[in-house]
Specification:
The chain has helices spanning 8-25, 27-30, 58-65, 112-127, and strands at residues 38-44, 47-56, 67-69, 74-84, 89-94, 99-105, 135-145, 150-158. The chain is of the alpha+beta class. It folds into two domains: 8-65, no CATH class; 67-158, OB fold (Dihydrolipoamide Acetyltransferase, E2P). The chain has a five-stranded mixed β-barrel with strand order 4-5-6-8-7. The chain has a two-stranded antiparallel sheet with strand order 1-2. A hairpin with a 4-residue loop joins strand 4 (74-84) and strand 5 (89-94). The protein is elongated. The two termini are 36 Å apart.
């Protein structure tokens, strides 16, 4: 359940941005084996008096750590909402998902024609987010969590 005032798109962005830090919280469980569980909460003198998060264990680590890349590309239409020309990464709002999804351009797609289409979509969307001219069509492999949650796209072709 998503907390009130935090829509699913913002919640997914939060998960995405904190994913590496959450993996690090699991380090004593997943790497060194010095713990089997961890509790997140408010503490005083080293003792938790109010639990504020889930209990972490090897299952929560595997959930966040495992990302599967699909073996078949899917066709996607969306509007680019952010793009970094140094990393070839960005976010694209996909209506059917109801949220911006992270994407990375595959090395074979990092050409002038593809980047021009990405930037055009971003520009049109920034000026008017209802502009159908901001739509961009592409083929992408999907990154998914262990339970099938869409985590991102690897863009293999921009149409």
């Amino acid at each position: 359940m998503v907390p009130k005032g935090l829509d699913e798109g913002k919640f997914q962005a939060l998960v995405e941005k904190t994913e590496n830090s959450i993996k690090e919280l699991h380090r004593p469980i997943s790497h060194s084996g010095t713990a089997t569980t961890a509790e997140i909460g408010r503490s005083s003198t080293g003792r938790i008096f109010r639990k504020t998060g889930p209990t972490l264990d090897i299952d929560t680590f595997e959930y966040i750590n495992v990302t599967k890349l699909s073996d078949r590309a899917k066709f996607v239409i969306g509007k680019v909402s952010s793009y970094n020309s140094n990393t070839y990464k960005g976010r694209i709002y996909v209506e059917s998902d109801g949220r911006p999804i992270p994407f990375t351009l595959a090395e074979t797609t990092r050409d002038a024609r593809s980047v021009t289409k990405i930037v055009r979509s971003l520009s049109s969307n920034a000026i008017n987010r209802f502009d159908v001219g901001a739509d961009i069509e592409f083929d992408a492999l999907t990154y998914e969590s262990k339970n099938g949650r869409l985590k991102g796209y690897l863009v293999t072709n921009i149409r």
